[in-house]
Structure formats: structure tokens, C-alpha cells
Design brief:
Layout: H1 15-29, H2 32-49, H3 53-66, H4 71-78, H5 82-90, H6 98-107
Length: 121
């Protein structure tokens, strides 16, 4: 079922709103270049090093445990067999599909993002 969307209403900002917006832009203007630089550095690091599968699985397990969820809870949320979940979390040679990782991530309230980049030279 599609969500009903309301009609967007456009109006001119009041003088008070324009002044408030200008003040906010001034406040962040000094910080914005540093924020952008930090984001670029983080992205470059991810592109260079990536995130090994073991780290992803470890992060999912840590989040599950932080939330106090059992493998049975994840099984109920994903339909993935408990034994398969256990093997996934504990097996160094795990080779899950992206769909499996996405289901697990959603079960603990996370979103999986895949990044494709050029190899480091």
C-alpha cells in the first residue's frame, strides 16, 4: 500500500526566519570545511581498507548482544535458522550472502551499505 503524501506548500520566509537562517549559516560556515575534510578522510580510509567481513559479523553480534537479543530472537526476526546464525557469528570461514547480512542488520536496527572502489595503489 502506497503512503499518502501531502501537498507541499511553498511560501516566502519571514524576515525573522531569514535572519535566523543567515545566523545559522554564519555559525556553521567556519566548521563546514573541517566537517567536509573529516568526511573525505573517513571515506578515503574506507576506500583504502574496506571493512573485512569478520568485522561486519563482529559488529552485528556485538549489536545483538548490546540489545540483549538471543539467536532465537534474530531467528524470529529474520527466518534464518539459529544454527546458521551461530555458524555465521563463530565461523572464521563464513561466506554469507548479502541478503543474509542485510536481514541480520535489519533485525538489529542497522542498515548495511556496500561500497565499491578502485583498488589501493
Amino acid at each position: 500500500m502506497a503512503k499518502a503524501r501531502g501537498k507541499r506548500v511553498y511560501r516566502k520566509a519571514t524576515a525573522e526566519e531569514r535572519a535566523r537562517h543567515a545566523k545559522i549559516r554564519e555559525q556553521i560556515a567556519e566548521e563546514l570545511p573541517e566537517i567536509r575534510n573529516r568526511a573525505k578522510e573517513q571515506l578515503a580510509l574506507l576506500k583504502r581498507e574496506g571493512t573485512p567481513l569478520r568485522q561486519v559479523l563482529g559488529a552485528l553480534r556485538a549489536e545483538r548482544e548490546r540489545q540483549g537479543l538471543s539467536l532465537a530472537d534474530i531467528n524470529e526476526r529474520t527466518g534464518i535458522d539459529r544454527a546458521a546464525l551461530s555458524r555465521l557469528e563463530n565461523n572464521e570461514d563464513a561466506n554469507p550472502t548479502l541478503a543474509t547480512l542485510e536481514r541480520y542488520a535489519e533485525a538489529v536496527g542497522k542498515k548495511m551499505v556496500v561500497l565499491l572502489s578502485e583498488p589501493a595503489t
